[in-house]
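INFO  loader      accepted 1 record
INFO  loader      residues=601
INFO  predictor   begin
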Amino acid sequence: MRNLFVRILISFVPCTLFSGSMPSIEYKIEIPNPQTHYAHVQIHIQQCDVKSLHFQMPVWTPGSYLVREFARNVQTAKASINGLEAPVLKTDKNTWKLDNTKGKDILFEYDIYAFEFSVRTSFIDADHAFLHNSSIFMMVSEYASSSGSIELHYSAEWKNLSTSLEKNKQGNLVFDNYDMLVDSPIEIGNHEVFSFDVMGVPHTAAMVGLNNCDMEKFKNDLRNMCNTMAQIIGEHPCKRYVFIIQNVESGGGGLEHLNSCCVVNQRWSWNNAEQYRNFLGLCAHEYFHLWNVKRLRPMELGPFDYNRENYTDMLWFSEGFTNYYDELALLRAGFVDRNAFVETLKTYINTLENRPGSSVQKLAESSRDAWIKEYRPNENSKNTTISYYSKGMVTAALLDAEICNKTNCKKNLDDVMRYLYQEYFKNKNRGFTTEEFVEALQTITGADFNEFIRKHVYSVEEPEYERIFSAAGIETKKTIIKEYSSGIQTALENGKTVVKYVNSRGPAWHGGINVNDILISANGAAINNDVDVVLKNIGNPGLVTFVLIRGGISREITMTMVPMEKIDFTLKLSSGGDNSREHILEKWLGKPKLEKENHGK
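INFO  predictor   done
INFO  writer      dumping tokens
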């Protein structure tokens, strides 16, 4: 009977195959029965030159700041030394140790389950294999700097393999070190592939799964977006680049890698204009990480420690600024006009400022706490946290506009990004600190941005939206709207109105309504997942008595209804003949492409 596991052999081969003094590592992957979702891994080390080896499965994957415990999928680890079975000691949750290894022939093997579909995990089934390598390949910590190769064996029915890794003369994939290996996912199956160039760099896209995509249109639009993003820094860091696009029934998301990315789209959404633009923005986001994160990065994000959290205060830069640039790219590439961009910016601001957590959590704190809060939200998260994606995006927009204002249209955020890329990635080959980021701002603009960073990154003060944006050509006005609202969000579950969120700024919070309460009525009027509609029909009631069920017991709660304050920022492009503002707008947002095209129709 054939082995039902996917088999991966990892062996150390003589270093003459690769440059450098360290032994190189060979991975061999066999996938004879993908419907079982299992992988079998073997690690072979010839003439080991250390007395002990530590085999470690990463607990997280770069770009996704949550401990995911990939070792939970590992089974039946065992080893042999010179062909004889040897004891393996598991020293902690993700490490296996083998002693008495020096000068000997070592074989280490294990089985691993791969059936969790996401951009952050590996997935193997009868249709295809997506290998997210940090969740498949153990690191031998003593040889993490070694180069190596991957030999793949899989069903003859699968015709295509897509990855950013290059091949050697034997047709095996090669990598420089473990960091490169885990940052280069592999897609194997019968997916469609198309190609295009950006700045002379070959790009390929793997379209995995059934879909209704107009491939030629998407190829042209994706090329446009990639060219737009590449122009920000002005040079391309890759020899080639790969998009792995997973078409699924529902869901979305993406994850960046060193020379590739994986993005997810709903398979039948390609002809929906809004969802199509959003997906182009997602592709632009992951693509721009080529520069911002993978090369231009905070000091703490590399080299990585795969065994524990890697903390940084600067995810607002890594993710928030990238979020800003993917929205800006839709404008620069001509997929939206200035009015649409301003409307998007307004939505970000109003969502942020009406989130109670905006007055609780600082932007730097949201970054450092990503490991326990951003990826683990609960029913109270909106009251206590913000997202470094959304506030980082708003902060980048404010900073970009302020740079244009302070330099009289001579500089913008692009100039800062180029300087950082050149100075820290290319010249110093390291990350940078917040202090060095502020120094870069001063170098480029001649202005002091310490107060800007203090206010926007290290405090919960409301930004100067009106001053900064209005000076840059976007008229901005803040209004406080008072309206009667419970502050409750509900969901209909089995015909019952269940409380899912209680806004800490609302009367229900102070009145004692809890998440998971089942609401029956308000002042005798039945509630059918329409709390605020019922309250509006009652009018200005003063006191409201809710009948609800909590923990299987009926009870009444009476509270005083008071108006909730809602912040409403309006943003619109300045009208009139103010040439100075138009110059700032052009330096900030670029010349309007889509607007001119529409005007000519």
